[in-house]
Design a protein that fits this description.
This protein has 75 residues and is mostly helical. Helices cover 81% and strands 0% of the residues.
């Protein structure tokens, strides 16, 4: 198992993976429909999206957390 000290990185990997997988599938379907080879095209799009999404989430997560804490804080 991975140490709890790496929790933010594990969360970023999982969230960016799930989100990029779902969105790349949806956008691929919208753009080309369910054509022959769709799954391969989708997986390629997902790998590219994930390669961008994971480092982006790592960079943005601290800012997003602070902003969420301000928004969710009781007055």
């Amino acid at each position: 198992m991975i140490s709890v000290k790496y929790l933010p990185q594990v969360q970023a990997a999982l969230l960016s993976g799930f989100m990029s997988f779902i969105l790349s599938g949806a956008i691929t379907f919208i753009n080309i429909g369910f054509v022959k080879g769709f799954v391969g095209i989708w997986l390629h799009a997902w790998l590219v999206a994930y390669a961008i999404a994971f480092p982006t989430v790592l960079l943005i997560f601290p800012f997003a957390r602070k902003l969420a804490m301000k928004i969710a804080t009781r007055p």
